[in-house]
Amino acid sequence: MIEIPEESRKDPKAKEKLLNEADIVFLCLPDDAARESVRLIKNKSVCVVDGSTAHRVTEGWIYGLPELKKEQRNLIKNSKRIVVPGCHATGFVAIVYPLVAMGIISPDYPVTCHATAGYSGGGKTMIADYQADNVPDYIKNPRPYSLALNHKHIPEMTKITGLTHPPLFAPTVVNVYNGEIISIPLIVPNLKKKLAAKEMRATLAEYYAGERFIKVMPYPADDYLKNGFMTFTDCNDTNNLEIFVFGSEERILLSARFDNLGKGASGAAVQNMNLVLGVDEATGL
Q1: Is 0.70 topped by the overall pTM?
Q2: 176: Cβ contacts below 8 Å, ≥ 6 apart
Q3: Which of 34, 72, 101, 180 has its CB 3.0 to 4.6 Å from that of 68, i.e. a possible disulfide?
């Protein structure tokens, strides 16, 4: 492993030297710094796995969700430019992409989505706010945010799923370090293919059949709830993503539960690295 010394991290020449010596570069940087780092790489054999938002909708970069579609793994294996999906986008895309691809919802369906996520997704500043001494009560409460409805994950949510209009996306941060639940309601009479909840579950289960990290839970999911509640942290410290289907003949709620730091971040990065290196996909996960 190549690691740049702390005192050299702002030295462009030191960064350029190490970036061009590596086989695989992981970028965990603000967007502008990620773009700058990529510009410094002249060695065409260097593979970049970018965890920032900088390149998620950039042409020539491959979306690092191996389960997205049948050819996605080969696209990742053969690419030198891979983007790690955003944490919120991971659950959203895992649910919506198959629905559009299979013609269950039309690309112009008015998709709405709510996310509840741990505060680690907010980065160093938010983590410091939650972990400070004498944290005020208002921070301990669930807090909806991005209320201008322009969250930075929306462009990839729209482009990768093939939607013609951006979804209405409303996230909430809670006083838990990691974990996430993404929920998307659907009105069955408005679907392109009128599937009831049980049929929707069967269709998604077939789509993800054989996948190691994405599992569609049984319907009804009563045995996987706790006293009727969907719990928040069951996938923490794993690279797993669980899709639940709730509802009936008329209304459906699709929910994805995962670790925003696992399948929603570092777990996905490692999974992509494994594919590039040709080792077992679960190595280190």
Answers
A1: yes
A2: 118, 119, 232, 233
A3: 72
